[in-house]
Give the backbone structure.
Amino acid sequence: MSQHYPVLLVTVPLLSAFIISGLSWVKKSLCFPVALLALGTSVFCAISLLFRVLDLGIVEYHMGGWMPPWGIAYRVDLLNALVLVVVSSVAFLNLFATHKSVQRDFPEKMGIFYVLYVLFVTGLMGITVTGDVFNLYVLLEIASLTAYALIALGQPDSAPLASLNYVFIGTIGACFYLLGIGYLYIMTGSLNMADIASLLPPIYHSKAVLVAFIFCMVGVCIKMAFFPLHVWLPNAYTFAPNPASSVIAPLMTKVMVYVMIRLVFSVFLPDFSFHVLHIDHAIVWLSCLAIVMGSLLALNQKNIKRMLTYIIVSEIGYMVGGFWLGNRLGMSGAILHILNDAIMTLCLFLAVGNIAYKIRGLDFVHLKGLFRKMPITMAAFVAAGLSVIGVPPTCGFFSKWYLISGAIQAGQYGFMVALLFSSLVNVVLFFRIIEIAYFEPMETHHRVVAMRDVMEEAPLTMLVPLLIVAVSLVAVGIYSGNIVTHIILPVLPKGIG
Amino acid sequence: MEALIHHIVGKYNYWLYIILMMIGLYAMIAKNNLIKKLVGMNIFQTAIILFYVSIGCKKGATIPILEEHGAHMGAHTIKVADYINPLPHVLMLTAIVVSVSTFGVALALAVKIYQKYKTLEEDEILMRLREK
Amino acid sequence: MKKIGFIIVCLSGALLLYATQDFPRWGDPNSPASTHVSPRYIQKTLEETDVPNAVTSILADYRGYDTMFETTVIFAAGMSCLILLRVFKRKDEDRYYRHISTGITLHVKGEKTIPDRSKEFERIDTMWTPYDLIIKTVSRFLVPFIQIFALYVLAHGHESPGGGFQGGVIFGASLIIMAIAFDLRTAMRRFKEKIDGLFSALGVFIYAGLGALCLLLGGNFLDYKELATIFPFDPIEARAYGILGVEIGVFIAVMAVMVCIYVNIASEGRLDEGL
């Protein structure tokens, strides 16, 4: 059975989604346990797969028994396995933490909500583990479609419009990616990643391959909200309901960064992307712009959730810029930052979800004096904020360290300045919130009318996962050295300096 | 000039479908009414589907359903150039289904927006949002 | 916005057209797309899968994994329409009833209603159009033939163009014709919402379940030749029957989801009147 792990971690949630759908018409209370069991199995399979890949090297799985390129093949190396562990654990923790919130907000549609949730996670895991470019497109569409529906479930006056805008822009992105792989198919005749990589070198200098690269990259950049293509992200993530936004925000954009890395490593080999095309300097400057604009726009916001979405935009700038620096330090920083940013964003959004469960609004005026009311939640929020700023020993410090070292080694001092600038702006952002929550007197028009200094914390099922995530921020930080040496450095191809 | 004519005449299908794609893309970006944007999305995706299907065409070939004379007689009686390439058709079956699904979900969202705002023009909706 | 759109469109169009210089000529049988992967599909489809239609054998066997996710996409779309639009609690609504013998229209407000099965009153839609006898009779005659044609398209996917998706859409269309020619409540009486939801999940569950069965029997996921161990076929025929099994799953799922999407959008989630 252990050789079937790559396919089990995608098909067990898939089958359970249909079981949950059937149960939602018959017996609603069983939907949540089935979803929890399915995602738990995925976490187990992902962790076992990581250990298997650490032992065996690359693990391949052929669907239907057909050899690639005639059949679809899964190809799991250390990069895949790491991102799979991240995706499945974030989704599992979030499912557990937001159950009470879902029960309160969507009482009669709870079953279908869990169906869409499990299908979203299936789509993301399928994107990560596949080795076939067209299979990636189909799974991208599953993840996107369920995300559109989950986002539209928020407030009826703003969420459907934000989701419809996301539909239009996301469809343009996915169709650009489809056009790119269509051009690759015309030039090579194959849809398997490794096969295309072996057929491309003779035709590196043809115009069609260049245009295929441009369209694939622009499509992926639209989906990962790289500035200036980020316009869908703030509205969509702010107006989404809290149980949905805390799974979509940490995962969707990071998996798209993984797709960009996978396209450069395994389809258009680094030889083509860095040495035939000379765009890496331009992309690093664009990501400096993304980081600076994301931070500046975040300063301008009065709603805590909207501020966090702009922080996501600048974090994407870190990852894209770090990757296109072109040296081992920069790429390690970018890949480590995928892991770290997923954990940090999950912690921030879970904390915001806890706050929204107890307090009516999420503007800064509603957060006054919140420390006395919800000390544990605010402590976790502060820990995640310190990680975003980059304070040791939290994980954010280590990935920033690798990125800055990579920038110095590549001579891209503009990128280093942008990173330091954004750290300073993050200090301002988070200390502003800490000041409002800790030092201002408490608001009297909170939803739950309580006495002045009584602690009214979120329920235990929402607190325990938040604490687990906050502790893992520090744990991953301490083990960063091990993670980089054993998992990330072996993934980087030989030709990178 | 000679080479340009040769390029257009030899590949006019690609040119046509790319122009159609651009019409759809323009409608998606520039139109104000939400339903017109949806129609543009449909045109864009349909043009991509046509583009892919035209990749598989071969001059003088027929549809890829093999005639059954002596089914197990072996591959030497089947000439590949007689049948068009079936792979783009398979890929586009998937793309058609994805396009229909996205269209269905987008229509459901448009119905929800209409229920709330009683209009489908984007500038009016944004004006009402700003007034709040 | 129009100027930005025009610039983006011109730029993308110019890039795409610029790249067509390197393409092979249209219809060239020696292009990479026609000579690299596809020849094996065309040459080996009969001897490896016993299915003459190369498109069906690629769709359901060689690249069957993609098709499973495609069916999941359409299932997700059905569920999305359901969760977005469906309202389960009825608020105060206006209902219109027509007294059959005299033709008088009643407008009943608030919570009080006349039962649907009453012999003297029939419920009519808020935007009422007169019922046309020709349309009602013709569609009542046609629906069984459409359904048989849909089942024919499904079963003949092996030998002629067709398959699960095409047949499922035709079958769903036959149920939608009932909703348009009569009214939504008549169609929903014949195809209840709970059955619809269960069918849409059942269809994709058959597909994924067949793949999991192959996994449990010892092969890789969706490797149909493992089915020969429990059914009395030889391994090549087992592939043809596996393809038929997954096409049936796709048929059921697509039929149910088409009806679900139509019903939810046309009635704005209330499932009582619309189009």
Q: What stands out?
A: Chain A touches chain C through 63 residues (CB under 8 Å). The first strand of chain A starts at residue 59 and ends at 62. Residues 328-358 of chain A form the longest helix (31 residues).
